[in-house]
Amino acid sequence: MTGSVVFIVDDDEAIRDALSWLFQSRGVAVETFASAEAFLAHWHPGLYGCVVLDIRMDGMTGIELFDRLREIGAGVQVIFLTGHGDVPMAVAAVKKGARDFVEKPFNDNDLVDRVIEALEWAVLQRESDAAGACLAARLDTLTLRERQVMERVLAGKLNKVIADELGITMRTVEVHRARLFEKMGVKTAVELAQTLAMPKRPTP
């Protein structure tokens, strides 16, 4: 999990210090924030990891921060720390995409295990996003005619049929097909279909 970080967002300094020590004792990199606003100021599009988030804080609450992270498409897993009275709120957040919630007082090892699992998901998410960005960049290099040929190749149509439908020669189809395969980094129509059917971003 090289590069994976757990971000502790809690307005209680004692909890931040205790959790920081706990995660570091298990070899997990930690960054702490005293408010939701401070974490938002730190966030950037390339940031991945797991946010351990107190559900109730002064200023912006944990739920409000979670909603904001969803709005901006933040690539982080979120685990809420919640008191007994906040469980319904935390369950609702999980239904909206939060990774998990842990009730206070919590078992130290159980919390760390859940966070490590979330960090593993964050790594998969980062890899999926990177692959998606690479695919989008390749598709952007295709000309309109290459896209038209690609659609028909994926439909399993022969070069002659493609030529007839587009009103061009078979030789021209072959040229567009070769350039299409080169730009997409594939050698066959099957590889092209597999590339375009890449898995979507993993979810908890």
From TrEMBL:
<feature type="modified residue" description="4-aspartylphosphate">
    <location>
        <position position="54"/>
    </location>
</feature>
<dbReference type="GO" id="GO:0003677">
    <property type="term" value="F:DNA binding"/>
</dbReference>
<dbReference type="InterPro" id="IPR011006">
    <property type="entry name" value="CheY-like_superfamily"/>
</dbReference>
<feature type="domain" description="Response regulatory">
    <location>
        <begin position="5"/>
        <end position="119"/>
    </location>
</feature>
<dbReference type="GO" id="GO:0006355">
    <property type="term" value="P:regulation of DNA-templated transcription"/>
</dbReference>
<feature type="domain" description="HTH luxR-type">
    <location>
        <begin position="135"/>
        <end position="200"/>
    </location>
</feature>
<keyword id="KW-0805">Transcription regulation</keyword>
<dbReference type="InterPro" id="IPR016032">
    <property type="entry name" value="Sig_transdc_resp-reg_C-effctor"/>
</dbReference>
<keyword id="KW-0804">Transcription</keyword>
<dbReference type="InterPro" id="IPR000792">
    <property type="entry name" value="Tscrpt_reg_LuxR_C"/>
</dbReference>
<keyword id="KW-0597">Phosphoprotein</keyword>
<dbReference type="Pfam" id="PF00196">
    <property type="entry name" value="GerE"/>
</dbReference>
<protein>
    <submittedName>
        <fullName>Response regulator</fullName>
    </submittedName>
</protein>
<dbReference type="InterPro" id="IPR036388">
    <property type="entry name" value="WH-like_DNA-bd_sf"/>
</dbReference>
<keyword id="KW-0238">DNA-binding</keyword>
<keyword id="KW-0902">Two-component regulatory system</keyword>
<dbReference type="Pfam" id="PF00072">
    <property type="entry name" value="Response_reg"/>
</dbReference>
<dbReference type="GO" id="GO:0000160">
    <property type="term" value="P:phosphorelay signal transduction system"/>
</dbReference>
<dbReference type="InterPro" id="IPR001789">
    <property type="entry name" value="Sig_transdc_resp-reg_receiver"/>
</dbReference>
